[in-house]
Each structure stands twice: as structure tokens, then as C-alpha cells.
Amino acid sequence: MGTAFPKKPVSNAKTVVVEHVAHSPTMQSYIPAIAEGLAVSMQHFFKNTKEMIRNERPDPILEGLEAGISCVMYPEQKRPYPERFRGVHRLTQRDDGAPRCVACLCCSTACPAQCIYIESGEYPEGDKRRGYERYPVRFVIDELRCIFCGYCVEACPCDAIRMDTGAHAAPYDSREQFIYDKDLLLSLPARDGSLKTINPRHEPGDPGHPGLTREHGH
What we know:
The chain is of the alpha+beta class and 218 residues long. 20% of the residues lie in helices and 10% in strands. It contains five helices and five strands. A three-stranded antiparallel sheet has the order 2-3-5. A two-stranded antiparallel sheet has the order 1-4. The longest helix is centred in the N-terminal third of the chain and has 23 residues. The termini are far apart. The model has no long low-confidence stretch (mean pLDDT 83).
């Protein structure tokens, strides 16, 4: 027969006995608490509405907390993003509207999330860029898989992909809408509204072109 566990010694801590309060039907229905909560909510509602109509509401972006705490009314109000904010991707364009991307696969190789897919192609016969430069037949970015690290921008040798749109991905309701193809990426502008890049690129044949062409092999 096993031995019983020894009883714990009585604690010397001072205990306070709380008297049980009988709950009335009104208290059990939570009607007073609900009414009190609705009164507080309506008080803040009318106060905020009055401040918005009179334009007395403190600006949560430009003003400090001394004037009171107020929420950012998104999307009507947005916090200003810093200049180096990594927003939605875009593909920069040449003067003729063609993408500056040469389908070198540097961005897709450097991407740790593997969210970039590029299908490269050759320029047609007679094009001066055929033989030493390719173009993206397909350029797809899965914005749901992207971690916005900026490695693709750093790896691109042509400054063809940038994240200077100053915008984040919209809250779509289907996965297909987060798949950005080449045409969509080419149509997204930078913060200044330009579809090009601030870094000039000299095309083959220009006096400042640093590379080689078939006509200028040396």
C-alpha cells in the first residue's frame, strides 16, 4: 500500500476574504455596461465629427501628441514615406518606350524569395541590338512572395528595375491581382511621375557608350 502525500503546511500569508456580491438580473444582462460603452463611443464620434467639420482635428502626421492622439484616416491621409522607401516595383523605359531590361537574370538570381520570373528573347533580324543584348519576353513579379529587400534593384546592371514608386501593394481580393506582369510594371511611374530613370544610360552608338558593338570591336 502506497504512502499518502504529506499535507502542506498552513501558509502564514495574510489572506483577505472577499465577500461574494449577489448579481442582480440587470447586472447579469450587462445592460448598464453596454449603455456606458455606447455613451463613450458616441461622445468620441460627435467630438471627432465636429473637429473634422471645423478643421480643428490635429494632424497625426505633422503635429505631435501634445494636441491629442488621432488616427490616420487612410487612404485619405497617408504618412509621408522616406525617400528610400521600397515601394512597389516598376520597370524603367528607354526613350522609345522599350524596357531597359536586358534579361540578364541578375535580379531573379539575387532574389532570396524567388518571386521574379523572366523569359528572355532575342531581338529580330536587322535590329542593331541583336546578338549582344536580349529583351524580356515575360517579366513577372509575385508581390505576395516579395519581401521588399531591394536586392533586385542593387543587382540590376542597367537600372531597369526600381522600387521608387512610393506606393505599397494595394489590398486586392485575389492572388492573381498580385502577379505583376511586364506591361503593368512598365506603366507604373516613379514619385515624380516619370517612367524613365534618373540615371542616364548611353545606348550603343552613342559617344559615351562604354561597351562594345560589332562595328566598334576595339
